[in-house]
Amino acid sequence: MQAHEVPTHVQAEDRVLLWFTFPQIVALTAVAALAYGVYSLAPFGPSGVRLALASLLGLTGVAAVAGKIGGRRLPLVVADLLRFWLGPRRYAGSPAELVRCEPPPSPPPTPNPLQLLVKRTRRGLRKLRKRRRRGERKPFRAHCRLGKRLFRRRGEGGKGQRQEIRLLGRRAGLALLAVSVAATTAVGVMALAAQPASADGHDQWFEEEVLIPEPVPGQRLFLERLTVYGDRAGIALRASTDLQVHVRAYGGDGGQTLVYQATESLVTGERRGWDVPLDGEFPSVTVSWQDGFGEAGAFSLEGAQLPYPLPSIEGELCSVAVTSLSWSPGRIEGSVSSRCADTVEERVELPVAAGHHEASVTALIEASVTDLSGTVTVTSGTWTAAADLAPNGSTTFRLPIGGGAGVQAVAVEAAIEATTTAPLPALVELTHHPERTDQLTETASVTIPAFGDSVTETITVTGEDGTPVSHSVTASCYVPESVVRQDVVFTVIHEEHVRAEVVARAPLVRGRSESLALALSVASDDPYEALASQEPEDEEEVLSTQTAVSPEVLQWLLGVVNEGQ
User: Fold this and answer.
1) Mean pLDDT of the chain
2) Where in the chain is the domain with CATH 2.60.40.2550?
3) In 3D, which of 384, 363, 340 has the Cα closest to residue 516?
């Protein structure tokens, strides 16, 4: 048989059965007994109701004894939730008041509620016995209360009636016993939850006491410059005494992941700068310090104190973004970049036809942008500065402000003006022509061509002697070419119709302006002032004094001590 030595300083609880410790087994046994008592002895409802109530009570007790969430017991989780819901959500003091250079003292041990209950029960029983001995109270007689007197009042006889009365008395006594067991079990479960922490990660259940040290007089560290550009921040600090400075940057999804840390030693009047990354949606920078006398303090830059992310806005003519913002004593500096458009869309009520029929449409016409100019105005409180906007470039500004620690609200407004030129399509003009009849007279010309011909005939002539003599006769004729002109009148009928004519239009020229506003804020600090550091005064030694005590008080104190043992 192998022997194992368990060190006694581990403070590990023994696992008696499976993964349950002995106190947990006792608590589970008490919960099971209480659930069975409720099911079998509860004087109300049918068996189904009692079974449901007992099951609910058993499951609740098992969850309270053995259940865990994230390695913590359920009573501890419920206590933390109650503290979160009922307690304050935000500390109203300065961050320096929460910083202490020494670890807090260990909290006093929490009294066990079960021990207090047993002690008070013993005290009550002792007083009750003393009263009985003195004759101040008569002994309790159950048969007189629930038996004979009740039987005599009803005036009825019989052994069966007496047995029913005794049965009622037993049930009432068992009900009182069940209530007592329930109260004792609840107190026991609370006592198990209040067990001290062990090696397996169990926490001690006690009221945490937050120790807030006294504020440190005098300012040890001054913020000389704070610059935010892109996703990084530059801070410059100046020490008014010899300090050990720790700079930490937090980011991530919840703003609680450490993304940067640095430690530097500064002498009186020395100035040092750090360039830290800004990560996530809720970045923050925490600066803590400790001087040579053990005094410590801290401050943080987050939220409205840290202008991140730098704002930007998009307009129709230009898009404006703050690329950097810097605070230093007496002034705020920064730069604004602009990206302007070459063309924009103009909304135009455009007529497409005129004259006999008119029609128009709403059109978006691309227009070219010319003569673009603007002004960047920066305002913080009552201080204002202006600079000319550089289109498609970077515009720097410098705003003189007053001193003092706090949060400086900064408003940046860009006023932009430009001229837009949009070419318009041609316009169609429609003209209506009704039906009409016209009498037209035209001169018609006819050309007669030239004509010529020869004619030959034979004739017979009778001579004197009566002899016929034949003769041939030829004749020729020629008509030259000629033109004959004649005026002709005719009728022309014109039908009804509409004639269209395309007319070119001049381009549309408009003046356009827009105003873009951005809002952000940045932290500021008081001007530097040297600190005359002094060694903290020693605490006065508290001397113990003795006070005379009367014999009655001394006897009472001895009784309390004996009861506690």
Assistant:
1) 77
2) 221-305
3) 340
